């Protein structure tokens, strides 16, 4: 309780006033009441004017009360301003969190790899000494709705594409993906076929060796994309399946690349489509660290030309990727069986390849290191595509998505006539992915 003392003549009148400060308006009301009551008390109690000393004392006391109330008002205003500032900061923070937590609808990514090859062949005319920015790739994706997405992959090979230049610009993927249920999806457009390991996952930081393995280059012609439609089913027990109907190969039956599977890729560029092809994959990853898959493809006419002696083709591929701690074992087996008088006469009706690749990866303060070995055996259509190869090397990942590579290779061809292509040598590479 605050007491105001009024000296009127010889008497002192005490006026009790009890007000609780509850905010800015309460303070202003209290000040007004004090002043008004002082004036009323002075005029009501005595008719005679007070002495100068008494008036001066009253003014000084009231002035002290006013200064005290002003200070309390200033403190209250400062607290209100500070509260407003904190509320505004909190709102801005919540807006930032909401934006950062929201998944972007459009995504951009890519990868690239630079290679240096130094290979010494038995016949020096087959030596390879070159440096090449082998691939520059950009990914573009967009979520059209919660259940419909678009994905694409655009690639430039060998740095430059023009008349007389080695490079190509290729659209490797451009498809719409539809999430039909929690366990079933579909896609349509241009997509990579579900065969082997490298064909769908071929970014440089994901595999060992500067160059991709030859089984998944010659027998499975990675990267291999077609146009069509596909369904995918996946279940909680680790089992999944893919079924696709798509455009087929157009393998040549004459010339230096006769019956060579890789030369039959049409890349969906005004591709012949007299006969479709079909691919089925069964996959199991229900055991920790294990990825096991088998793919089967049927080509109704692998040349797209009726009656040319290449009538049908069947591909069976099995792949395994098993991680046991820091140790990994990978392997692929692939086999083509073609029917037709011409392909049988050329001895190219069966084309096979396989490889095994053990590796060991460990972490250090400066990044991850990985060492590997690989043995592969290839029996393709051309005599230069019939060889065995041994390879050892290392990968160094200084950061996620960045890799430096080194390997040593030795290749021996199966036929005496191709002995001049036997070589040994090393490769150095740089790759990235984002």
The SSE string, one letter per element, is EEHHEEEEEHEEEEEEHEEEEE
Largest sheet: 16 strands, antiparallel, barrel
Number of helical segments?
4
**CATH class call of the largest domain:** Mainly Beta
Calculate the terminal CA-CA distance, rounded to whole Å: 72 Å
In the sheet with the most strands, the strands line up as: 3-4-5-6-7-8-9-10-11-12-13-14-15-16-17-18
Approximately how much beta-strand content do the residues carry? over 45%
Topology:
Layout: E1 2-8, E2 11-17, H1 24-45, H2 52-101, E3 106-121, E4 128-143, E5 148-157, E6 168-179, E7 184-192, H3 215-219, E8 225-234, E9 239-246, E10 277-284, E11 290-299, E12 312-324, E13 327-339, H4 341-345, E14 350-364, E15 367-379, E16 386-399, E17 402-413, E18 423-433
Antiparallel strand pairs: 1-2, 3-4, 3-18, 4-5, 5-6, 6-7, 7-8, 8-9, 9-10, 10-11, 11-12, 12-13, 13-14, 14-15, 15-16, 16-17, 17-18
Task: Explain what the structure shows.
The protein is an alpha+beta fold. It has two domains: about 1-100, no CATH class; about 105-434, Porin, CATH 2.40.160. The chain is built from four helices and 18 strands. The protein has helices at about 25-45, 50-100, 215-220, 340-345, and strands spanning about 1-10, 10-15, 105-120, 130-145, 150-155, 170-180, 185-190, 225-235, 240-245, 275-285, 290-300, 310-325, 325-340, 350-365, 365-380, 385-400, 400-415, 425-434. The strands form two sheets. It has a 16-stranded antiparallel barrel. A two-stranded antiparallel ribbon has the order 1-2. Helix 1 (about 25-45) packs antiparallel against helix 2 (about 50-100). The longest helix has about 50 residues, at about 50-100. The protein starts with a strand and ends with a strand. The model is unreliable at about 1-25, about 40-45 and about 95-100 (pLDDT under 50).
């Amino acid at each position: 309780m605050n007491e105001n003392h009024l000296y009127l003549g010889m008497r002192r009148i005490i006026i009790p006033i009890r007000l609780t400060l509850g905010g800015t308006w309460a303070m202003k009301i209290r000040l007004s009441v004090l002043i008004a009551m002082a004036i009323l008390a002075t005029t009501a109690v005595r008719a005679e004017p007070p002495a100068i000393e008494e008036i001066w004392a009253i003014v000084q006391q009231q002035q002290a009360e006013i200064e005290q109330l002003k200070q309390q008002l200033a403190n209250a205003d400062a607290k209100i301003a500070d509260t407003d500032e904190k509320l505004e900061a909190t709102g801005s923070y919540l807006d930032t969190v909401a934006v950062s937590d929201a998944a972007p609808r459009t995504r951009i990514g890519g990868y690239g790899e630079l290679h240096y090859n130094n290979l010494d062949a038995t016949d020096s005319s087959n030596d390879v000494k070159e440096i090449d920015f082998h691939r520059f790739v950009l990914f573009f994706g967009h979520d059209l709705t919660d259940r419909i997405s678009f994905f694409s992959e655009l690639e430039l090979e060998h740095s430059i594409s023009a008349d007389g230049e080695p490079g190509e610009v290729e659209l490797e993927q451009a498809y719409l993906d539809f999430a039909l249920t929690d366990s079933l999806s579909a896609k349509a457009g241009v997509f990579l076929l579900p065969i082997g390991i490298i064909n769908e996952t071929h970014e440089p930081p994901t595999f060992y060796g500067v160059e991709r393995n030859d089984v998944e280059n010659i027998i499975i012609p990675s990267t291999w994309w077609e146009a069509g439609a596909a369904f995918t089913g996946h279940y909680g027990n680790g089992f999944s399946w893919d079924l696709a109907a798509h455009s087929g190969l157009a393998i040549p039956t004459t010339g230096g690349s006769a019956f060579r599977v890789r030369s039959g890729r049409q890349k969906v560029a005004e591709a012949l489509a007299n006969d479709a092809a079909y691919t089925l994959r069964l996959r199991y990853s229900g055991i920790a660290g294990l990825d096991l898959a088998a793919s089967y493809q049927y080509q109704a006419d692998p040349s797209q030309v009726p009656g040319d002696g290449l009538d049908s083709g069947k591909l069976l591929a099995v792949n395994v990727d098993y991680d046991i701690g820091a140790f990994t074992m990978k392997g692929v087996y692939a086999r083509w069986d073609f029917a037709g008088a011409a392909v049988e006469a050329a001895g190219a009706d069966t084309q096979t390849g396989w490889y095994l690749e053990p590796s060991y990866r460990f972490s250090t303060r400066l990044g991850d290191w990985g060492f590997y070995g690989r043995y592969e055996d290839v029996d393709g259509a051309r005599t230069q595509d019939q060889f065995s190869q041994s390879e050892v090397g290392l990968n160094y990942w200084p950061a996620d998505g960045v890799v430096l590579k080194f390997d040593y290779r030795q290749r021996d061809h199966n036929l005496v006539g191709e002995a001049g292509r036997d070589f040994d040598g090393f490769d150095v590479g740089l790759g990235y992915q984002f």
